[in-house]
Design goal:
The protein is of the alpha/beta class and 342 residues long. Helices cover 47% and strands 18% of the residues. The chain has one domain: Bacterial extracellular solute-binding protein, family 7 (D-Maltodextrin-Binding Protein, domain 2, 3-Layer(aba) Sandwich). The chain contains 15 helices and 10 strands. It binds (2S)-2-hydroxy-2-methyl-3-oxobutanoic acid (X2X).
Length: 342
C-alpha cells in the first residue's frame, strides 16, 4: 500500500492549528459549563457520610442532566455558621442547606419537635415517625415560611451522647452547673436549663476550639460527629445518654428551586432523597464500631440509665412547657409514634 507523503507543516501553521485546538477545547470546556450551578452548604466534615452521599448524588445528578445541573458542595460551614447560613438560605444567597430541625426552629418553631428529650427509643421509631405524619407536618410548617422548602427524606445525624473533658455524666446530678455547649436552639437551651446545667450556645464550627480552650467542659453529639469532627481529641469522657435523636432537613430556597425546569427538579429530588436513605444506613453502620474505635483513641465510656433523666425533665416541667409550645395536635402526633411523654 502506497505510503501517504508526510505533510510538511510550517511552524506558523502548526502554531495556528494548536491554537485552534486549544480554543476549541476551551470552547468545548465552556460549552460543558453547567446551565445551572447551585450551592449546597452544610456544617459537617467532608468525611461524614452526609458529605460522601451528597457528593455521590451530585455526580449522579450531573450525569443524568447531561451536565446541565451542577451541585457545588460547601462542607464544614465554609459559607458561614449555621445561624449565618440559615439567613442565606432564606435570602437565596445559598440554594440548599442541611440543617437540624432544632436550629431551624428559630425560624420554623414546629421543626424542633423531634428533639424532645428521650422521645425516641430506637431507629425503627425514628423513621416510622419522620417518614410518617409528623415528618409531613413539619415539612408543611416549613413550606408555610414561603422562603424555604424541605425535601421529603430527612438525613440522619443520630442519637446524641454527652461528652466531657472533666467527668462522666452518670446521673442528672452530674449535669448541675455543668458547662455544656448547645447548638443555637431554644429547645436545647431549655432542656439543659431543666437539668440545672449551664448551657452555652455555640455554632458547630466553633465547638472544637471552645472545648479545647475549656470555654465549655462538654458537648453532646452522635458518635459519628465525635469521630468525624475529631472531638475525641478534646473530650475524655463519653456518656451514652441517648438523650435525643436529631436529623438534618435538606432545605432549598423556594425561589431558586422553582426557577429550575421541572425535569431537572425531578432528577435532583430523586437523587437527594435516595442519598438521604443511603446516608441513614451509613451512619448506623459507622456508629456500630465507633464506641470501640473511640475507646481505642482513649475516650472513657459509661452506660446511662435514662429513667432518672426523664424524671428530672418531667419534674422540671420540660415536657409540659414544650407540649404547650407545639400544641396539642402536634404533641399527639408525636406521642402516637413514641408513646406518652412526661
Ligand atoms: O451543631 C451540632 O451539634 C450538630 C452538628 O449536631 C448539628 O448540626 C445539630
Amino acid at each position: 500500500m502506497e505510503k501517504r507523503p508526510m505533510m510538511k507543516i510550517s511552524r506558523r501553521s502548526f502554531a495556528a492549528g494548536a491554537g485552534a485546538v486549544a480554543v476549541s477545547t476551551f470552547a468545548i470546556g465552556r460549552a460543558r459549563a453547567a446551565e445551572f450551578t447551585y450551592k449546597y452548604a452544610n456544617n459537617l466534615p467532608l468525611s461524614h457520610p452526609l458529605n460522601i452521599r451528597a457528593q455521590e448524588a451530585a455526580n449522579k445528578i450531573k450525569e443524568e442532566t447531561g451536565g446541565r445541573f451542577e451541585l457545588q458542595i460547601f462542607p464544614s460551614s465554609q459559607l458561614g455558621s449555621d445561624t449565618d447560613t440559615l439567613g442565606q438560605i432564606r435570602s437565596g444567597a445559598v440554594d440548599f442547606f442541611t440543617l437540624s430541625g432544632l436550629i431551624l426552629s428559630t425560624y420554623v418553631p414546629a421543626a424542633s419537635i423531634n428533639g424532645i428529650g428521650f422521645a425516641f427509643k430506637d431507629y425503627a421509631t425514628v423513621w416510622k415517625t419522620m417518614d410518617g405524619k409528623l415528618g409531613e407536618y413539619v415539612r408543611a410548617e416549613i413550606a408555610k415560611s414561603r422562603s424555604i422548602i424541605a425535601f421529603e427524606k430527612i438525613w440522619d445525624n443520630g442519637f446524641r451522647q454527652t461528652t466531657s473533658s472533666s467527668k462522666p455524666i452518670a446521673t442528672p446530678a452530674d449535669l448541675v452547673n455543668f458547662k455544656i455547649r448547645v447548638p443555637p436552639s431554644p429547645l436545647w437551651t431549655s432542656m439543659y436549663r431543666a437539668f440545672e446545667a449551664a448551657p452555652t450556645t455555640i455554632n458547630f464550627n466553633e465547638v472544637y476550639s471552645a472545648l479545647q480552650s475549656k470555654v465549655v467542659d462538654g458537648q453532646e453529639n452522635p458518635l459519628a460527629i465525635v469521630e468525624t469532627a475529631k472531638l475525641y481529641e478534646v473530650q475524655q469522657y463519653c456518656s451514652l445518654t441517648n438523650h435525643m435523636w436529631d436529623g438534618f432537613w435538606f432545605l432549598a430556597n423556594r425561589r431558586n428551586w422553582e426557577a429550575l425546569p421541572e425535569n431537572i427538579r425531578t432528577i435532583v429530588t430523586k437523587h437527594i432523597n435516595a442519598a438521604a436513605v443511603a446516608e441513614r444506613a451509613d451512619v448506623a453502620k459507622l456508629t456500630e464500631g465507633l464506641q470501640k474505635k473511640l475507646a481505642d483513641r482513649g475516650m472513657k465510656f459509661n452506660a446511662v440509665d435514662p429513667a432518672p433523666f426523664r424524671d428530672k425533665l418531667k419534674s422540671a416541667g420540660f415536657y409540659k412547657e414544650w407540649k404547650g409550645k407545639f400544641g396539642d395536635a402536634a404533641w399527639a402526633m408525636l406521642e402516637s409514634s413514641v408513646g406518652a411523654l412526661g
